Amino acid sequence: MLARVGPLRRRWRPPAACAVVLVVAWALRAALPGPGAAVAGSAAPDTIRIALVDRARGVELRGTDIAVAPGPAGACAGPCESWRTDAVRGGVAGDGIELDGRHAASFRLQSDSPIRLNGREYQSPIDLVRNGDGLAVVNEVPLEEYVVGVLRAETFERFPMEALRAQAIAARTYAAYHRLLGEGKPFHIIASTAHQQFFGRVPPGSPMWDAVSATAGQVLRWEGEVFPAFYHADSGGFTEEPRNVFTSSNMPALKSIRCEFSTTSPHFYWNLDVKLAEMGDLLRRQGLDVGTVRAVEVAERTPSLRAITVSVRGSRGIVRLRGNDFRRMIGYDTLKSTLFAVAVDRGIAHFTGRGYGHGVGMCQWGAKGMAEQGYTAAQIVSFYYPGAVLGTLAAP
User: Fold this and answer.
1) β partners of residue 59
2) Which residue(s) pair with 240 in the sheet?
3) Gap between the Cα atoms of 172 and 174, Å rounded
């Protein structure tokens, strides 16, 4: 049953039967999977499939006694036997994948120990599947474990617990939305800033586990449906309406709000200098040649004062860019937000801005500030997602 967002009164505790289920699940992981175990797009109802790497030409994974099974059944080019190894190397081969000299449409990796990829550890199973002209490394994990990994990658353990709980609700909502959107596809969500970053295996002592267990199953709904509950580092004083940032037609009609809780953020105020010659080079890389850049100005703003359109004038003409496209061109981590003013002097564009990120949804530093003032997680998400309803995945 859905209820309007209100205080969280009870901390979730797993029933004793869950311990039995977990023991059985870990015991099953030790079994060697047979051919056909790796089936792209299939996932248990309480799990989510995360693309750790997408469209890669080759990958290398390491671990201890990794059980490798080609699949699906009947799609092997040669023997389909499973094998065990401590290192897996493979890449694209024809319309399939080659792994340690064996060819198949996909492979599933399982181990009792974590499997390492690009310096991070992940629990199995991990699938290698074709996606477009490359391959994807897909980790299938329980949804709640995934949310723990998102919190560890997207926020700070030192943040107050109510801020972490609010982050868990937002991250779980975002994941649940993408799990519906990606149903039947090789994976549901990407482990990057394109969707949500994912840390992988999180040590049991991390406060992220407490934040997730305290909010287990809780999601936000808009008109009865889960939605992409976006969040960002720092609003700079005002959040932004989703439809001013994202072009998708199914964005919730969240309203921009004034946020006075993130003033202690290191990103609340910032300055940036960019040489006009460098800006001209960046434009040319985008296929836009205005010659020697002479002027940069914000041509149009949203009600929250973010740049909708940026005009760049050069010796060969003028180009008008969407504010978000201009920020992407300069670099998301360089030009921290589109909430800026710009002035040109002696061949340099001087940017003075506020905030970090797109400005939609929850401000993470603002959530920290609210928690420090005694607000609960439910009150925090109610503030940043006005009109959303707090419910559970099990009770739409």
Assistant:
1) 90
2) 360
3) 5
Give tens-digit pLDDT for 346-395.
Answer: 999 999 999 999 999 999 999 999 999 999 999 999 999 999 999 999 85
At which residue do the structure tokens 């040590």 appear? 203
pLDDT at residue 43, as a whole number: 61
Q: How far apart are the first and last CA of the chain?
A: 7
Q: Which one-letter DSSP state was computed for residue 256? A: P
Q: Which residue has the tokens 């199953």?
A: 217
Dihedral of alpha carbons 18, 21, 25, 27, sign: positive
Question: Hey, CA dihedral for 36, 42, 47, 48, is it positive or negative?
Answer: positive
The answer to whether the CB of 73 falls within 8 A of the CB of 105 is no
Cα–chain-centroid distance for residue 276? 33
Residues contacting 383, CB < 8 A, separation 6+: 257, 370, 375
Query: What pLDDT was estimated at residue 394?
Result: 81
DSSP 138-160: EEEEEHHHHHHHHHHHHS-TTS-
Q: What is the pTM of this model?
A: 0.87
Scored b (16 or more CB within 10 A) or e, 303-323 reads ebbbbeebbbbbeeeebebbb
Provide mean pLDDT across the span 28-53: 62
Question: Which class for 359: exposed (0-12), middle (13-18), buried (19 or more C-beta within 10 A)?
Answer: buried
- Rounded to an integer, what distance in angstroms lies between the CA atom of residue 143 and that of residue 314? 50
C-alpha to C-alpha distance for 202 and 146, rounded to whole angstroms: 10
pLDDT at position 25 over 80: no
Spatial contact of 330 and 274, defined as CB atoms under 8 Å apart: yes
Q: What type of residue is 221?
A: R
pLDDT at 38 over 50: no
Cβ-based neighbours of 20, under 8 Å, separated by 6 or more: none
Give the separation between CA 148 and CA 165, rounded to whole angstroms: 11
Q: Which alpha helices (DSSP H) does 236-335 contain, by range?
A: 276-285, 323-330
Could you give phi then psi for residue 66, rounded to 5 degrees?
Answer: -80, 125
